[in-house]
Each structure stands twice: as C-alpha cells, then as structure tokens.
Design goal:
The protein has helices at residues 16-30, 34-44, 49-59; strands spanning 5-8, 60-63. By secondary structure, the chain is mostly helical.
C-alpha cells in the first residue's frame, strides 16, 4: 500500500492528539485522498497509544527525529 505521506515524529512526543494532528497535516499537504485519510483516522483512534503508533507506521513513512 502506498503511504499517505511522510511525517516527522520525534520520539519525545507522547501526546496522541499531537501525533494525529501531525499526520492529518502531512496528509493534507501531500494531497492524500480524503477517504483514505478518514480511514486512517478511524482506525488510529480505536485503541491505545501503542495501537495508534502501529497504525501511523502502516499508513505513513515515519522520520523519527531525536528531539
């Protein structure tokens, strides 16, 4: 599956809302289809923080900055 976009996800982020916001912004900038972005969001919020990170890595190319 083609990734929605590439995101910079510093390892210090522990806030699920910030992770989701970064993903949504990156998908919009990359011109991702709204339906795919919506599908990602629906899946991402179905579990705990670890589930969120797994879903993010499935749908996005993740650059883990060390900040």
């Amino acid at each position: 599956m083609k990734k929605l976009a590439t995101i910079d996800l510093p390892r210090t982020i522990a806030n699920a809302f910030e992770v989701l916001a970064r993903c949504q912004s990156a998908a919009e900038r990359a011109g991702a289809e709204q339906a795919r972005n919506q599908g990602f969001l629906e899946d991402a919020v179905q579990g705990d923080y670890e589930h969120l990170l797994r879903v993010v890595k499935t749908h996005f190319e993740v650059s883990s900055a060390r900040t």
